[in-house]
Design goal:
Elements: E1 4-9, H1 15-23, E2 28-34, H2 38-48, E3 52-54, H3 57-62, E4 68-71, H4 78-87, E5 91-94, H5 102-115, E6 119-121, H6 129-139, E7 146-154, H7 170-173, H8 178-194, E8 198-206, E9 211-215, E10 230-234, E11 240-247, E12 252-258, E13 267-274, E14 278-282, E15 288-292, E16 299-302, H9 310-313, H10 326-342, H11 358-376, E17 382-383
Helix pairs in contact: 1-10, 4-5, 5-11, 6-8, 8-11
The protein binds alpha-L-sorbopyranose.
Alpha-L-sorbopyranose binds next to α8.
């Protein structure tokens, strides 16, 4: 098999997992890392055993050994980094949110289509075997027509006024914080599983911590800020949100999103209620799928490949009782994307399910825009407006 060269721009918290995941595929070489300075790129590259270190994303993108550019930079750098990669016709794998506004996300989608490359966004929770099982069961009609989709995505890493991240600064993270950062995962996930798209939203956004103490240095998600020098920072974006949503297939939905909820670490969960059965899945107990029934006992389906439907089985790599986790699901997403690249496929062809595209990233950005608009209008139902396809 022809080997594929991967280069990563922005080696922070999640960048390391991109590298680990593609290494597990067996046919991908991690060629280079780019960071804001050559020194920091070199330090990361040495720590991770990556041969080349670049002090700018332009250098990495120009590197002929890099065929796929992974963008794990803060949100405000997504547009320039991705545009530069597309200008050189490199395939792009970008973290979510694809861009800080729907207009920018649409431009990136259009540019990627024009470049004729493979484009992907890491809505990584799609890669869980039991998420794929839920999707297969709904598609097969086991649940019946779906009428209610609800759940939440709660974390606690921003509960203290001293907790901080670039995600909270509108010019670096975007106008929305919790909804764009984690609510976008929930929306993508339930749409993917249920096969219905969110078309209207009603949002109530809250800023629980109005003033934060911003540290002098940069802080990674889930980490505590270092240093004594702190400045007051007036929050402009939400850390808590309640959304009602309507789906194009007729289902109604509700979701709570928050990053100030003590005890919840990465608590993404959904429940889907259909005419014949319900399905429930929780990221923090990802090896269990709850199946709810009225006429017989409800129960738990464990992540056991021998019990999964064929489409879901290939996302499980260990026998029943051997727990799989976040990094395995992340690797499944990379496997879907890189198999597509290795086969020389184009974006108009059928893609494997865990592979979310720039179109999905654009749709997610349109939902965030609609959420912000709904809140501005005092919590009014607001259509998710997508302009014509590219
Ligand atoms: C921080 O809230 C974060 O790292 C998100 O940015 C990720 O997308 C999510 O998967 C976990 O939490």
């Amino acid at each position: 098999m022809k080997r594929i060269g991967m280069g990563l721009v922005g080696p922070g918290f999640v960048g390391v997992h991109h590298i680990d995941a593609v290494r597990r595929l067996g046919f991908v070489d991690v060629v280079a890392i780019a960071a804001s300075t050559e020194k920091s790129a070199r330090a990361k590259a040495d720590a991770l055993g990556v041969p080349k270190a670049h002090g700018s994303y332009e250098q990495l993108i120009a590197d002929p050994d890099v065929h796929v550019v992974h963008n794990t930079t803060p949100n405000f750098l997504h547009v320039p980094v991705i545009k530069a990669a597309l200008a050189r016709r490199k395939h792009v794998v970008s973290d979510k949110p694809l861009a800080m506004t729907a207009n920018d996300a649409r431009d990136l989608w259009r540019a990627a289509e024009q470049a004729g490359v493979v484009h992907a966004v890491t809505f990584n929770y799609r890669g869980n075997p039991l998420v794929q099982q839920a999707r297969e069961m709904i598609a097969a009609g086991d649940v019946g027509p779906v009428h209610f989709i609800h759940g939440g995505y709660l974390q606690d890493w921003l509960i203290e006024a001293t907790d901080f991240s670039w995600r909270l600064e509108p010019e670096k993270g975007g106008a929305s914080s919790a909804v764009a950062d984690i609510g976008s995962h929930w929306c993508d996930l339930v749409q993917h599983v249920a096969g219905q798209r969110i078309v209207e939203v009603l949002a109530d956004l809250t800023t629980v911590i109005g003033t934060r103490m911003k540290p002098s240095g940069s802080v990674e998600a889930f980490a505590k800020g270092a240093g004594d020098r702190r400045e007051p920072f007036t929050m402009q974006s939400e850390d808590l949100a309640t959304l009602l949503v309507r789906f194009d297939g007729g289902a109604k939905g509700a979701v709570n999103v928050g990053q100030v909820c003590a005890g919840h670490k990465n608590d993404l969960w959904f429940e889907i209620n259909g005419a014949r059965a319900s399905l429930g899945w929780r990221q923090e107990r990802q090896n269990e799928l709850w199946i709810g029934r009225r006429e017989s006992a409800s129960g738990i389906l464990p992540k056991d490949p021998s019990l999964l439907m064929p489409g879901a089985r290939k996302y499980a790599h260990l026998p029943g009782g051997h727990q799989e986790a976040w990094a395995d699901a992340f690797c499944n997403v990379m496997r879907d994307i890189y198999a597509f690249i290795a086969d020389g496929r184009t974006m108009s062809e059928l893609r494997p399910p865990a592979f979310a595209t720039f179109e999905d990233g654009y749709h997610a950005a349109c939902i965030v825009d609609a959420v912000l608009e709904s809140h501005r209008r005092g919590g009014a139902w607001t259509a998710v407006r997508e302009r014509v396809a590219v």
